[in-house]
């Protein structure tokens, strides 16, 4: 009896596994289910019997009937749920519309590389083209996309650094992508409690990345946004939290004027593949001819600081570093890496960035150091150990 129950249960589970989530029951599906149940009963009644024994076909038919009916009802249920997909898409479209129409927003950004804290910022955005960030050390960065410039202010050294940025908005780029997303974008929908608010959660799967948006379902206001790309040590998680929309922000916060008493340094730090290759060469040469285990701001700064005699604090438990006193050589070398660092930041946020340079020797043409997806296409590009760039060869480790 136990074996029979096990077989019947297995049959039931098999039917559940065979239900296709995208199945749409045709008209009259329920009638056909009941006709199959009656046919199964009739077949049992007319089947030849063996030696006389208590007949127990009813329980078994009941199990068969229940399993068939359950599978059909699950399909019907999924079909009914699918009717709500249009509404879910419309609701997500309202969230995207809110982001497009917002006059201003401020939020905190936390960036995790693997399990390590890589960056922390407070961000203010005015309109679509102006962004102001302040990091944990008080360094202020103001980006004006209309002018294609970014101004960084280092209060401890009284230095202002002006760079070309060609469309780069730093961590404001994530909102920029959502503004461009079509209203009909499909998103998986669920509900979660977030800081005491019952939030609607939209998850959008993209090549190499998943975007998750928590929103107030009544007002369509985003409460939290998260981007996750890569896996393992290459997993990068960017979290926008403590979001406040349409807050009054003074125009003076976004002024591109150099404050009195600051020394101006003009640098070309626009993200580029050439800048990435230059940074990789510098890092490998500083690391004894081997590419570093990681490629992020903290790792690059640490390599440069140690090789140029710049004074820096130790890496703390969260993986952050602070360079207290850059030497002139250290500042120049870091300036040569800014374009590459900006390229990596962009790729991590949008383009399926992966880094596999650990233990790869400079000059090894048979190994891949890093790869990324080309925006707007399915093509992936890579930098190899000999620093050549080209399409990703999946046959190369």
Explain what the structure shows.
A hairpin with a 4-residue loop joins strand 5 (149-154) and strand 6 (159-164). Helix 1 runs parallel beside helix 3 (57-83), helix 2 runs antiparallel to helix 3 (57-83) and helix 6 packs across helix 8. 34% of the residues lie in helices and 29% in strands. It folds into three domains: 2-48 and 55-83, no CATH class; 103-254, Lipoprotein localisation LolA/LolB/LppX (outer membrane lipoprotein receptor (LolB), chain A), CATH 2.50.20.10; 271-391, no CATH class. It has eight helices and 18 strands. Residues 1-38, 49-85 and 313-322 have low confidence and may be disordered.
DSSP summary, beta strand count? 18
Element pattern in H and E: HHHHEEEEEEHEEEEEEHHEEHEEEE
Helix content estimate: 25-40%
Indicate the mean pLDDT.
75
Report how far the terminal alpha carbons are from each other. Answer: 55 Å
Q: How does the helix and strand content classify structurally?
A: alpha+beta
- Low-confidence segments, ≥5 residues, pLDDT <50? 1-38, 49-85, 313-322
How many domain regions? Answer: 3
Short description:
The protein has 397 residues and is an alpha+beta fold. It contains 8 helices and 18 strands. A hairpin with a 6-residue loop joins strand 10 (221-229) and strand 11.
Outline the secondary-structure elements.
Layout: H1 2-17, H2 29-46, H3 57-83, H4 85-101, E1 104-113, E2 116-126, E3 130-135, E4 140-144, E5 149-154, E6 159-164, H5 173-180, E7 188-194, E8 197-206, E9 209-216, E10 221-229, E11 236-245, E12 263-267, H6 273-286, H7 297-308, E13 311-312, E14 323-325, H8 328-350, E15 354-355, E16 368-373, E17 380-384, E18 389-391
Helix pairs in contact: 1-3, 2-3, 4-5, 6-8, 7-8
